[in-house]
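DM from R.C. (forwarded with permission)

"hey, sorry to bug you on a friday — could you get me a structure for this? deadline for the figure draft is monday and I only need the backbone to look sensible"
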Amino acid sequence: MLTASPLALLRNATLADGSQVDVVLADGLVTAVVPTGQAAPSDAQLDLTGYLLLPAVADPHAHLDKARSWTAIQPPMGDLISAIGAWRSYSDVMTEDDVAARARAQALAMLALGTTAVRTHVDIRLGDDPTLNVRALVRVREELGSLMDLELVALAGPDTTDRAVDMALDLGVDLVGGAPHLALDPLADMTRLLSIAERRGVGVDLHVDESLDGPVTLDAYARAVRGWSQNVSAGHCCRLGTLETAERVRIIAEVVASDVGIIANPITNLYLQGWQHDTSTPRGLVPARELLDAGARFAAGADNVRDPFNPLGRSDGLETAMLLVVAGHLTTAEAYAAVSTGARDVMRLPAAGPVVGARADLLAVRGVDLAEVVACAPADRMVLRAGRLVARTTTQLELAAPVPTSQTSSATLQEA
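My reply, with the result:
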């Protein structure tokens, strides 16, 4: 068991630009980054020889209350609507302890792989106990507070009452969320949720336009929050990627003008979208390149992990980054930024990374460069949160010694 005591020095680290450095830490911050060998030795140091040192992962869109429920539910594979139906049926038999146990296991799995901050949506339930999931996640947030930052978003469906959302906020939920595109009147439901957030003085993170050909509400959302001081973001936004170019450009301009953070969720939307298309199946993904080029705040999350909305997922920001490269055509550096520094920006967390003045939330991964790390997702990792080592994974590889082909053939003939 790690003691998680503060570190003062990281020696012999390789940065993403290839430079070899020592990183000096104090009070949870990076205070100096100097060429290897130039920092004074410390009793509280960590040798990172052979490791790439990166900003820690931050996940801006998770569903910890749903995570790891696939095996228990055994849902049919399918699109968003079938996943919602399977989840709601299971919700009727869930307990608070069940939700907490799965959420805790998922959060710790993410931490072990390098995620030190998570924004998780949490369902506001229907029926007599709308805050069961909320209470479970508030409990987990308190339990894990010394290890990672957990931010909670009240996920209010179109049939969720305003009172239930207020109850969740009273319990300590941080932001108002929902999925207005699923409502019969999407704009009316969006206006309702924004009114609650404005009245309570909290930020908003909505699921927006999570379809290939459904309603378009992102532009109205951006206009409605223009001038807000509270943080505002939009997750999914798949519909934006299917619009004609001129309409996409117009809506992205609205997003940038209102400083709405956009959160892509590649693994879940690649799974959920396109089931109805037998030929040239379209993919559910935001136009990441256009958003970055326009100057939008942009991030990406793992979203659902092993639940009715996505049967797979490794709980690893490097997996999300890889999908942004192969499906979203971002560079490797852009993709990793989306799951680290860009995610922290969208979440409005303090900047983190191996940079002077930044918070010492760091991920050290065994590897020589960023391309290798994202491609191979090496298991050997060390995770720092505010300058303390909170997770370490080491592996051991054993291979049989190679035998020349000629010797192998001779031995086979002799045996024959």
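R.C.: lifesaver. The CA atoms of residues 91 and 297 lie 34 Å apart.
me: no worries. DSSP finds 15 helices and 16 strands in the chain.
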